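Thread: Modeling a multi-component assembly for a lab meeting

Hi all, long-time lurker, first post. My supervisor asked me to bring a structural picture of a complex we are working on to next week's group meeting, and I have zero experience with this. I have the sequence lines for every component (467 residues in total). Could someone generate the structure of the whole assembly? Inputs are pasted exactly as I received them:
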Amino acid sequence: MSIAVKEKKQSLQFRGDDLANVKTQLKILNGKEVIQKELPRFQEKLKAIDIFPLKPTQVDIFQMNLGKMCNQVCAHCHVDAGPDRKEIMTKETMQVCLDILAQYDVSTIDMTGGAPEMNPNFRWFVEEASKLGKKFIDRCNLTIILANPKYHDLPHFFKEHNIEVVSSLPHYSSKKTDSQRGDGVFDKSIKALQMLNEVGYGIEGTGLPLNLVYNPSGAFLPGSQETLEKQFKHKLRKDFGIEFNNLYAITNIPISRFLEYLLQSGNYEGYMEKLVDAYNPAAAQNVMCRNTLSISWDGYIYDCDFNQMLDLKVNAKSKHIKDFDFDELSNRDIVLGQHCFGCTAGAGSSCGGEVA
Amino acid sequence: MSKTYYNSEDLKKFGNITEFQEEMGKKFFDYYGSVFEEGALTAREKSLIALAVSHAIQCPYCIDAYSSDTMEKGCTEEEMMEAVHVAGAIRGGASLVHGVQMMNKVKDLSM
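Re: Modeling a multi-component assembly
Sure thing. I ran the full set together rather than chain by chain. Output:
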């Protein structure tokens, strides 16, 4: 059964699906309701290599989820984002983040969503944050650039503020991309990539990075990032004249709508076994939660975007940005679960691709 | 004795063949690993060849393994099916080329 068969037009939350409740997801991930056999526990794996409790190496990336609103309803979305989601970060919350970023030595601001650009204060935030002189990433779904005339100038806006663009493109074939991200997404993504290339993104010597995210369109793991990157570069250049810098191969984490897909397609058990079997201790050493803090639309602090979507807040007194305590957060015990096997399978997976 | 000759769960136990003959099993898996590394052929090309061969030898374990492996390596469904057609063409050709033997015999025996 392919993802396309079950393509949904609304979020789990809008549909009133039981999986919209994170407790249901955690029960499935941690219990024996779906998988009868005992899978190894993630924290036991870390104990075996003497890195439990898992501690941050440094807080270097400040990843902000600007909201769950999105113009797409991707079948694998771990955020359960979509046009029907109205949760967006307020200007006040953004200001608190700016104050924190100005005060601490955090090198990177990483904006994600939903479609972060749909936040009405997105441009204000970028204007303000770009004054801080930090590395600045926008996780752009590409189609937003074409979704409405008011977004057509985004490539210029990104360039003007020296933003690194990281965009999802699960495959260079329309069939695979559309099966995951919705009908017509591939053609629009190609057009958006060409618009980004036109202003210099992804073109050698411009200093404007355009990085693509590959994630499997189904219940399998990503292959070698280097090999996939070569193939993507060859095909996108040959078929569409598109250039980009790096390809990040990312594993789908078994939560939210990807969990829904796994359960509905009968792939959940097999996928979890694959993740566990592919556990790589070297990847565990370098998981992204060790150098990242993830901030939700309403200002709560998490170890990563996945913990955020499972509502597993940081194990610290400062659970909200209004109580931000850099030293405490730098020494927290990272909250772990069975979904963490997604970041340690094979060559590992992070928002920047492989980690081992 | 299991109810069917093939059990998909057995694929995960492939490594256990070393239980009965460790030295040869280990040599085989070392060799197997080397074969599928990047070389003059890419790992991706080798995976597509393996998928084709899996069909030619009709090994259900291999078909499972290399359907997943080619997908992981980013191969498209068209590429995968073309590989299967390569197997089909060779198998079909292998039968048909014997038609020449048949024709030779027929000609030998005919007036």
